[in-house]
Amino acid sequence: MPGIVIVGAQWGDEGKGKITDLLAEHGDAVVRFQGGNNAGHTIVRGEEEWKLHLIPSGILYPGKTCVIGNGVVIDPRVLIEELDGLRARRVDVGGLRISANAHLIMPYHLLLDSAGETRLGSNKIGTTRRGIGPCYADKAARLGIRVQDLLDEKILKKKIVAAMEPKRLSLRPYEKDPALDLHTMTEEYLVYGHRLEQHIADTSKLMWELLDAGKNVILEGAQGAMLDIDHGTYPFVTSSNPLSGAACVGTGIGPKAIDEVWGIAKAYTTRVGAGPFPSELEDDTGEQIRSRGGEFGTTTGRARRTGWLDLVALRYASRLNTLTALVITKLDVLSGFDRIQVATSYRGADGAEFEDFPYHQTVLHHTTASLTELRGWKEDLGECRTLSDLPDAAREYLDFIAEHSGAPVALVGVGPGRDQVIWTEAGRDTLIGEAGGVGSGAPA
Ligand code: GDP
Ligand code: IMO
Ligand code: MG
């Protein structure tokens, strides 16, 4: 079972980092395929917490091959800081490989991201202001600067001039910003190039070699399906495709290399930034979920918006990704509610009922969630390790999710810790396979 894709099935922050770290123990390589340092992936091991933004969540295993694929946009300053931070904590980062074709976030991308948000005023997207959108825009406009350009001063300078020329007007307010001085910028990025050179590689070729050798490769998504630029809640989305289909393009492999697609979803819903959120709770219950779940952004520290689980969106994510399994995280956070609600359909402004995710923006913006009420439970789930340890109501909740989302539940999270998971039979069956694959560490 060579290729397994891990994707967010909601609006991001579902716990992809934790699950990737867990599966990586028995994987041979972990690969990021899109997004940039807008991502914040948390791993908790014992007393220690790690927050990764660009480096794949397999890096904590000494020497593990970790690849930043061509589909990722890289802010080299942030990447170097992250590498230095890991080294300072004695993590062996020798297995990191960076695609020479990945695009670079430049100082002007950061300025343009912030300027764009300011210009939109009350209609702003609520981006992470990390330059992600402007960098992908330059990539599409064929004005991007790639990792390989860091290794050639002449080319780098020429490309920076060409990339900045069409932005002259929008960058005028920052004319005096030293970060935009051509010489300073080139020098700065050449230094980054020297620092990163040992990690730069032809990562597509590396992927083929790994897959040809029957190695287990984990492709780690960032963000989530509802933030997808094509299928998400446009324009309140990110500028890449966080769907499983992008795992191929973003690393240089074909779809036949993918065996499993696992979608990660919280037992409820969160969203950071603006945009439609039909099952949002702007009341005490929402506040309780936020404080119990520690729902504050890993990257920007912003309070995450919270709401009940949205099965309309989850079913949509399941179809968009061809999910073979679901991982439900943070089930423990729902302990203590008498009743739990889930969105099973949407109601439009005119009273029309939607079973499927509405494709039209105006319709979507005026829908509210139609909720189904389920039994809650009081017990703390932190110590549960098998499905039979869970209260009946929690098991019923998982069954309800599986039935309505169209994917079996493989794994359940009952706390942030690495061991705070419950493997289901479906999880062991799909992942272990005959030869013992990525999940062969799952308890039998
Ligand atoms: P990612 O971006 O998808 O990797 O998710 P984040 O790291 O941004 O946010 C998920 C948060 O939930 C992190 O703080 C995790 O440590 C935490 N977490 C993950 N799984 C669980 C779980 O099952 N229960 C609890 N209580 N916390 C979890
Ligand atoms: P992980 O990988 C949650 C959101 C931003 C904003 C929108 C566009 O940790 O799940 P961008 O900076 O990408 O142009 O912002 O997307 N967003 C995320 N929300 N988790 C993330 O990543 C996100 N990355 C971007 O809040 O609404
Ligand atoms: Mg996150």
Q: How does this structure look, described?
A:
This protein folds into two domains: 3-95 and 202-431, Adenylosuccinate Synthetase, Chain A, domain 3, CATH 3.90.170.10; 103-199, Adenylosuccinate Synthetase, subunit A, domain 2, CATH 1.10.300. The two termini are 18 Å apart. The strands form five sheets. Strands 9-7-5-2-10-1-11-15-19-20 form a ten-stranded mixed β-sheet, with helices on both faces. Helices cover 31% and strands 20% of the residues. The protein has 444 residues and is α/β, with parallel strands linked by helices. It is built from 14 helices and 20 strands. Helix 3 (107-120) packs across helix 4 and helix 5 (153-164) crosses helix 7. Bound molecules: guanosine-5'-diphosphate, 6-O-phosphoryl inosine monophosphate and magnesium ion (MG). 6-O-phosphoryl inosine monophosphate (IMO) binds at residues 8, 12-13, 38-41, 125-128, 130, 132-133, 222-224, 227, 238-239, 272-273, 298.
Short description:
The protein has 444 residues and is of the alpha/beta class.
Query: Per the principal axes of the C-alpha atoms, what is the gross shape?
Result: globular
Q: Treating each run of at least 4 consecutive H or I residues as one helix, how many helices?
A: 14
What would the average pLDDT be, to the nearest integer?
95
Could you tell me the strand content as a percent range?
Answer: 15-25%
Number of strands: 20
Portion of residues in helices?
A: 25-40%
